[in-house]
Amino acid sequence: MKILVTGGAGFIGGNFVHHMVNKYPEDQIINLDLLTYAGNLETLKPVEDKPNYKFVRGDIADRDFVMDLFDRERPDFVVNFAAESHVDRSITDPGVFVRTNVMGTQVLLDASKEYGVKRYHQVSTDEVYGDLPLDRPDLFFHEDTPLHTSSPYSSSKASADLFVLAYERTYGLPVTISRCSNNYGPYHFPEKFIPLIISRALADEKIPVYGKGNNVRDWLHVSDHCEAIDLILRQGKPGEVYNVGGHNEKTNLEVVKTILAALDKPESLIEFVTDRLGHDLRYAIDPTKLETELGWKPKYTFETGIRQTIDWYLENREWWENIISGDYADYFEKMYGEDLAE
Ligand code: NAD
Ligand code: TDX
User: Which is it for strands 249-251 and 216-221: parallel, antiparallel or unpaired?
Assistant: First the structure.
């Protein structure tokens, strides 16, 4: 079996490539990634010499390039992780989110249709459902919860989902979609909340918390997400959407305090800063369908997962210190400069 993974030099795609290359030595894994600021070949070092792995640099929105690649490689399965993924960046520069997340997905769908792939899997997000109120802990996102997006990022992901489902209904393309809650774990780019906390706390630097820090996210370890996608790819029903989440809801403040305590750092590092525009209040996934129909079960609790993640960042300083000292430093200054000024 030949599996084309897009966005495999990013956080979740990279973890998924590791998972697939190691678990299925008889399958061929092709990793197509543009290597934007978020793509990092260092993440692929552990698998780059494996005989069942190949890297191709390219843009999923470049139709001629993608069609040529499909013509050459004839993949059986396509798993699309490639995306612009950071909500804050979508607020300052929405255009590239439409290009990659919507138009790129549509190009991949056309190629999958043209070359008869057996399964196209779209990696989506719980953010397509919008948010839930903080005072209704009884409410959860189900697969049939209406799409109700808040940010340019989530709007682009929801648009892509609609195209994916349209290609199933209109052309009979065998598609599946997974909508996962917030991931954390190894190789997470330090612009995102958890690696940002760990890397800044280790340097005794202020940690920016938006608003009052009472927004709630539902955290899932990235390896549990990878297992879910693998399962859906092999056993999921074409045309179906599967929610992925492990019931690990935490306020942002709880997350910061947990990490500071684990690193033995003071809470005085917390700095409340201007809130994100349109900031979603609460995400919470109901994963019952995936659990009952496909037998998925997460291996990590938040407590075991965050410990593993902190240890990984302690043991792999070079990976994230290289990022922090590069172009990312300019982004951080523009994003938080005034808020975190002494
Ligand atoms: P990421 O930003 O770490 O990685 C994205 C990757 O896509 C990078 O390697 C980048 O180089 C590549 N890429 C970007 N534009 C491209 C293009 N035009 N052509 C080819 N490659 C391109 O993202 P992530 O956090 O790993 O998220 C992966 C996917 O999972 C995204 O689709 C995201 O919406 C979804 N998702 C993320 C989370 C989360 O918590 N991070 C949760 C649910 C779903
Ligand atoms: O500096 C910060 N301070 C802060 O308080 C940052 C970067 C974030 N936050 C808050 C905003 C959110 O409530 O922390 C929470 C998590 O923020 P992010 O890491 O930016 O994630 P989020 O916006 O929840 O989106 C993530 O989960 C769903 C991923 O980035 C998306 O790609 C995924 O679809």
Answer: antiparallel
The protein residue with its alpha carbon nearest to ligand 2, atom 6, reads 193
Out of 33, 59, 84, 126, the active site residue is 126
pLDDT over threshold 70, residue 18: yes
| 3-state SS, one letter per residue, for 79-112 | EECCCCCCHHHHHHCCHHHHHHHHHHHHHHHHHH
Residue 119 Cβ contacting ligand 2 at under 6 Å: no
Q: Say how many C-beta atoms besides its own lie within 10 A of residue 114's C-beta.
A: 12
Q: Which of 36, 81, 87 to mutate to test the pocket of ligand 2 (most atoms within 8 A of CB)?
A: 87
Cα angle, residue 244 at apex, residues 192 and 112 outer, rounded to 5°: 90
Q: Which helix (H) or strand (E) holds 178?
A: strand 175-180
Residue 88 falls in the annotated catalytic set: no
3-state SS, residue 47? coil
pTM, full prediction: 0.97
Using one digit for the tens of pLDDT, what is the confidence trace for 19-44?
999 999 999 999 999 999 999 999 99
Pocket test for ligand 2, best of 84, 182, 324 (most atoms within 8 A of CB): 182
CA 234 to centroid of ligand 2, rounded, Å: 30
Please state, in angstroms and rounded to a whole number, the distance separating the CA atoms of residues 330 and 338: 13
Q: For the segment 215-245, what is each residue's pLDDT rounded down to a tens digit?
A: 999 999 999 999 999 999 999 999 999 999 9
Q: Which of 161, 216, 184, 167 is nearest to 313 (CA)?
A: 184
Residues 6+ apart with CB under 8 A from 157: 83, 101, 124, 125, 127, 128, 149
Per-residue pLDDT, 204: 98
What single letter denotes the amino acid at residue 143? E
Compute the radius of gyration of the chain from its Cα atoms. Answer: 19
